[in-house]
Amino acid sequence: MTALLEVEDLHVEFRTRDGVVRVLNGVSYHVDVGETVAVLGESGSGKSVTAQAVMGILDTPPAFVTRGSVRFHGEELLTASAERRRRLRGDGVAMIFQDALSALNPVFTVGFQIEEQLRTRRGMSRSDARARAVELLDLVRIPHARQRVRDYPHQFSGGMRQRAMIAMSLALDPEVLIADEPTTALDVTVQAQIMDLLAEIQRERHMGLVLITHDLGVVAEVADRIVVMYAGRIVEQADALSLFRSPGHPYTEALMKSLPRLDSKGTVLDTIKGLPPNLLRIPPGCPFHPRCPRAQDVCSVQVPAQERLGFGRTSACHFASEVLDG
Ligand code: SF4
Ligand code: MG
């Protein structure tokens, strides 16, 4: 069966004055119909860049896709015409961003921004588009949608703006929604509400949902599958239940140890020592070895292959099976 969205062996580099920055080094994942995939990693791990490559909006620094494939219903997007990409944007695959304030246009009302898509892409009349915009704001539970549709983005609170952006992304009924850190700028209660809303919309519409996050806690309850990225590579992929039960990569283990737990109130959380690598100088061997509590001699020399751990699980660690056993 063809996946809804497939990213395969994606390599991206930024050619900067300081040298070539290899931001993606062979990233592969897929999203099926009705599936929620969380892409997890620290900043600079390549999670947003992957999404930008999928959306065809990879323009920050001089970015080059040097290898790989991005397919939507089996259709190659990387070589598709600009017109084809534009048509698929919002319609096939839509994206919402962390910072709704900069993603929404401040000089137009929220309603206008939704209506404009409906009028230009769906040929709707002004009044039909307005009615649909109100429905969409209602769907994302913006109170008094009929009035708020006339408000400007700055008249919304942070959480309401994020809801408005979700409404906007749903206007063309996308089959896949990519949410890049959709709740990072919000306080914890609002974060949970937005995540619940996304999960509910995903279920109702049977969409593919990609949740990009640095916070495992935020996606724990909604993700079907989790893709863990480090230094432009995928280090582990697993269904969410298995991953939480027993991580198969030391980096995932470390991320889980840094999660606050209900049963350990007051204890100091383990944070991961050291920093993510400078992508201009990715460490040889396993890129995680300078920070890995399980590292052996081989780790600084040999790049670990993707080890299959069954049921679609993979881990890029020389000692994956041992990690899995605890
Ligand atoms: Fe740690 Fe070695 Fe596994 Fe890398 S390959 S994660 S350094 S044990
Ligand atoms: Mg990012």
From TrEMBL:
Gene Ontology MF terms: ATP binding; ATP hydrolysis activity
Organismal lineage: Bacteria, Bacillati, Actinomycetota, Actinomycetes, Pseudonocardiales
InterPro entries, per database record: AAA+_ATPase (IPR003593), ABC_Ni/Peptide_Import (IPR050388), ABC_transporter-like_ATP-bd (IPR003439), ABC_transporter-like_CS (IPR017871), Oligopep_ABC_C (IPR013563), P-loop_NTPase (IPR027417)
Residue span(s) of domain ABC transporter: 5-256
UniProt KW keywords: ATP-binding, Cell membrane, Membrane, Nucleotide-binding, Transport
Subcellular location: Cell membrane
NCBIfam families in the cross-refs: oligo_HPY
One protein family per Pfam: oligo_HPY
The organism of origin for this protein: Saccharothrix espanaensis (strain ATCC 51144 / DSM 44229 / JCM 9112 / NBRC 15066 / NRRL 15764)
Name listed for the protein in its UniProt record: ABC-type di-/oligopeptide transporter, ATPase subunit
Entry keyword annotation includes Cytoplasm: no
Residues forming coiled coils: none
Transferase keyword on record: no
Sequence similarity: Belongs to the ABC transporter superfamily.
Membrane topology type: Peripheral membrane protein
GO CC, alphabetical: plasma membrane
Any one GO biological process: peptide transport
